[in-house]
Amino acid sequence: MQTRKIISIRSFCLIVFLLSSPILAFPIQISKDWKIAAGKNLEVRAEDPSWKEFKSLPIPKDLLRSFSFSEDVVPTVTLLKTFDVSSQDIQGLTMDGLSIHFPLLTNVYEIYFNGEKIGEGGAILGGKIVKNGFKRHVIFPIPENKIKIGKNEIRLILSSDAGEELDAYASFDSTPPVVDLQSRNALILSERSTLMLSFLYLFVGFYHFLFYFKRPQEKYNLFFGLFSISLSTYIYLRSNSVYELNLDPLLQMKLEYMVVFNVTAFFLLFLDNFFDSKISSISRFYQFFALALTSLIPFSSRAICVYLLQIWQFSVFVFAAYSLFIMLRALYRKNQDSVRLFAGFIILLVSAITDLVGSMQLVPYLENYGLLKYGFFTFELGIVFILANRFLRVHNEVEELNLDLDRKVKERTGQLEDTLSQIQELKIQQDGDYFLTSLLLDPLNRYKIQNETILVEGFSRQKKHFEFKQWKKEIGGDIIIADEVVLKDRRYLVFVNGDAMGKSIQGAGGALVLGVVFRSFLSRTKTSSSYHSKPPELWLKECFLELQNIFESFDGSMLISVVLGLVDLESGILFFLNAEHPWTVLYRDGVSSFIEDKLELRKIGITGLESKMKVKIFFLEKGDSIFIGSDGRDDLLLGVDPDGTRLINEDESQFLKRVEESRGDLGLLIQGLRNYGELTDDLSVLKLTYMKDPVRLETFARNALFKFPDETYSKYLDAENWEHALYYLENIKSKIQDGNMPPVFKKELAKVYYKTGKFEEALLLFEDLISEFPEDVETMFMASLIYKRFKRFRQAVELGERVLLREPEFLNNVAHLAESYLFIHKKDVTVKLLEKVDQLDPSNSHAKKIRIQLDSPIPDHRNG
């Protein structure tokens, strides 16, 4: 960019030096009275008429256009200048030499003094410029032996590509071309103030970068930092120090243009963001415009680069107008920062426009004086004033806070102490509530049973731990209860393991309700004949329904999962219901497995559970262990993933592995769970170990002393020859002592009695079998059919219900039970059972007959 700088301190020093020196002919200004000729002319004498004269540098454009240059050679001209040196001048050079200074030469140049080359820049090879030579402030020493008394001659050879500038400037930085003492010409290259300002602006830029990184929301710090650093870089590229890098002059010029194009864009972005906290569409457009010009520079020739510079120079006037508009708008809005910046902004804007007009040579005798670097300094003072004002404001606020800090700290401490006291009081009250609730739960949560048939062990650990006065307790929703009851003259172990919904006090409330209702039901069972005369299936059903009715009254705000069961101590039969509790585990012969694989019931407290009820049966063998536990056994914390998400175990089979690893030992099992993962919920585990040989019907079937059925009976059975079968069985019966009839034989005899119509004899045998071996569903069903035949409908219903609870999809029993209920005038139950029959077999003939009976008068058998 063809710009010029203001008179600097070094110029002032030069003047002072000249005034203080002896009066000599030096410096000799050589900007006027030049001659010019086309081509390289070293031999042509100065008096030759081929020379064309012109008054002053720079070379007039019309004079250059008068020369015709061949297209296959680089346009070249020779400039000639003569001047006189007296003997007195030469005598004054004893302490110093002479040098010649040219402000700016473009492009390739050679300088001759009295016929001897004293300097050159750039290179031409093969008719092309292979190295650029244009340079600011070209200074070369003049050999002392070449200086003559009288006339001396300077020849300047200039070459440049077609379309590019070919010139020798008359002034740059207000410094003309001169022949002067070397010491004085050296002062021209002194740029202390320029470099100091460049470093200052660089420091300011990085300082604002630091502000931006600390407070990214204040983007104006980023834009001002970019503006300040860009301006610092531009000043350095315009200085003589940049020549120490030995860059190619064209590359140096391109870097200079690329930087200066973005200086104005960054300043505009700063103003927009500083006053409006956003970037306007005009600023964005100007930014894209500057980036477009910048992107073209690396691929352009020197002539095109100069053309792009001219485009940018005209755009600066638009930039100046819009930036002034932003500042005036901020003043209108009474922005205090705009008031502090206005003076510096005006100085910056005026200095920039002055340099721009001078470099464009729009005004005669006005050149680029380099005022911008000083104008920005005044603007920078405004920024410093703003920062200082903000610092003082913050400092004053801090002082005010410090003056009142002690009082505020005391007030705040007092408030915190009051709040802490209130919290402590509430905590004591809460812990008291927890303590009282735990006292209510403790007598309910018991499972210590002394029994030689079955060993009961339990573990319970609640998630919530608390201290109340000198007591350390825990509270939660898990509960284990175990006891013994007698049902129909058979001893049973009854147990329940529950997990109430909610944590701490809410869960404890659910566990408390379950414990109270269940203990109440156990108490009634032990004292009331109507309860202890119930069979195990119906006892479980009634107990479950009582719990369900109580929890339903909470409208879903209190739910609980349970495993509720009975163990027949004699036969080892496990009767149980599972209401959305983790599956029951069997440990047998070193292997653990689930004894259920299907969810039958939802949590207690959810409506509509009665119709889905099923009593599950499992036959225990000697040495078997049953493990029942809450979901705390599965909800183990395994760790935390890289995102901070907690990893909770979701593999239910891990509990089986822990049971096997512990070999069925409850203590080792709990330790194994803790080793595998951290407990995240209440945990309760109930272990039942059956320790005797069970007495069941199948046990007698395997008895080798009495093999039955034998081959003869099997033949009658296959042929359905019931009369002969009866005769055969009664013949065997006559040989058996009374009271020693094998159960398997007794069952087959009862079935044959039934087939031959001897229902009374069959019923007597069936009743004995049901009493001794309650696991046989077939026996119950056939006895129920006989009760219905004898119009003993309530007994028929009881046995039918037992079969229904065990085998809900046993079609014949469902239809039979529907008819039995009809005869005791419970038509609503009959209708529900008929709907179940339709689901199992829509075309069932028995159900159709029952529906016909629904509309017919039924005798009153409610007492039967």
TrEMBL record:
Keywords: Kinase, Membrane, TPR repeat, Transferase, Transmembrane, Transmembrane helix. Pfam families: 7TMR-DISM_7TM (PF07695), SpoIIE (PF07228). The chain crosses the membrane at residues 195-213, 220-237, 257-275, 287-309, 315-332, 339-362. InterPro entries: 7TMR_DISM_rcpt_extracell_dom1, PPM-type-like_dom_sf, PPM-type_phosphatase-like_dom, TPR-like_helical_dom_sf, TPR_rpt. Gene3D superfamilies: PPM-type phosphatase domain (3.60.40.10), Tetratricopeptide repeat domain (1.25.40.10). PROSITE patterns: TPR. TPR repeats lie at residues 743-776. Residues 201-390 form the 7TM-DISM receptor extracellular domain. GO terms for molecular function: kinase activity. Residues 491-688 form the PPM-type phosphatase domain. This is Histidine kinase.
